[in-house]
Input
Amino acid sequence: MQAVRDAIAAAAVQAGRDESEVILLAVSKTFTPGALREAYQAGQRRFAESYMQEALEKMAALRDLAIEWHYIGPIQSNKTRAIADNFSWVHSVDRLKVAERLSEQRPAHLPALQVCVQVNISMEASKSGVAPDEADELAHAVAKLPNLKLRGLMAVPAPSDKIVAQRLPFAQLRKLRDQLNQQGLQLDTLSMGMSHDFTAAIAEGANMVRIGTAIFGARNYGEQ
Output
């Protein structure tokens, strides 16, 4: 855990940024409650999940911990109530219908659900996310919903081993965020960068990086 924090801090310094600007989100899908508890004991408070049933089981097992839960997976309409009930953040809003359901189903006693619009920045057929040229309309519509707080944009670009190629889609997402802010939105979050490319993401302005493998090790998807 500390090695990841040190790497994030080094990437921030290299980019001329303060390390406090970059939030570490531990992507804990497929890992056991015990692994999360260990990370929590090492100071980690924000965890991200993609599979609803697994997430609910972990929440029950770890209810004694003050965890901030983030949902980062594709959202099916029949899962919106569970998301609205149990998560503080949702990074993967890519359809207005889903956003409307999250807003309608957010319990009144909870604060507004913090959300990011997911953009398919690399236009991959296999990836979720709104097309970049449709993100404008969706973002403005989501921003008007009463029980949601639109915080920013999220993306999972096509993988690359070259830093220049990694930075390009992140720069595109940052530019899109800046354009939306010029149109009157107040977006403060770029959720981008994972274990293999967070250095490039931080160089392009990421302030929330989603790290799993570098914290917990390789995943086993055998039971998913």
